[in-house]
């Protein structure tokens, strides 16, 4: 009908308009749910329109590729709901319900796009470097969507004094690393020991704790997988995986270090590709897929994207035949006051 035509025209217009990346500093600027609702209403339709056009412009056969039609449907439904929702700054209940539904609907979106990317590669429609660029757009948009919607719902819950929505103003990186160690240890072979060394006591900074947890968890998963693979290969006791946390007045540094055999020099650049995985299926199957960073080889590239999105950097130093050191550097951010 006429409404559908209008929404299609809006998608075309907004897809051309573009959108900006959301940074942690911007998240901290918005402390009232109504303000975040306005940002969501401005930012998310443009993101979804861009993804819808990305799907449609990839190939005329997009409806026949597993994952693409489903992802298109998810995005189109969310776009429609965002454009039609009624809310006022005094009554955000309908908007809040819509966001909860949107998050449930989008829970499988990364998986759908990964499935689509695999199909595009198998059919020769896109080559590996193009697949990487294609997925990078999807993931960048996904992180912004995730941050804004989580922030809104956290503000609606009126969290404790140490939080501004999803931002933990007293984020303790050593505590987060220990939580990730405990989680990984619960489903990794008991012989693999993970140790934590903190170079300064009581390091605290403003950060999104759940994202730091996911990043550390993914790096640990890679290190434990490599250590397990090396143990099977050499037939001897596994070496321990070590995490070191340090800080100065400007930055936080975290190193995850393993003796899991490293990555060959020729594969060093490939580890950042979305569809690349060094972990055999029989080892991968030992790990939980509860982390949003887990998936078909997308973890490490997703980690890097999250880290950079949040103003930090992630580097790998690998020694083939020996092991790998992963370094995360994160900037301290002044959370200010209300």
TrEMBL record:
GO cellular component, one term: mitochondrial matrix
An individual GO BP term: regulation of glucose metabolic process
Entry EC number(s): 2.7.11.-
Pfam families: BCDHK_Adom3, HATPase_c
Keyword ATP-binding: yes
One Gene Ontology MF term: pyruvate dehydrogenase (acetyl-transferring) kinase activity
Signal sequence segment: none
Catalytic activities: L-seryl-[pyruvate dehydrogenase E1 alpha subunit] + ATP = O-phospho-L-seryl-[pyruvate dehydrogenase E1 alpha subunit] + ADP + H(+)
Name of the top EC class for this enzyme: transferase
PROSITE patterns on file: HIS_KIN (PS50109)
Transferase keyword on record: yes
Name of the featured protein: Protein-serine/threonine kinase
Top-level taxonomy: Eukaryota, Sar, Alveolata, Dinophyceae, Noctilucales
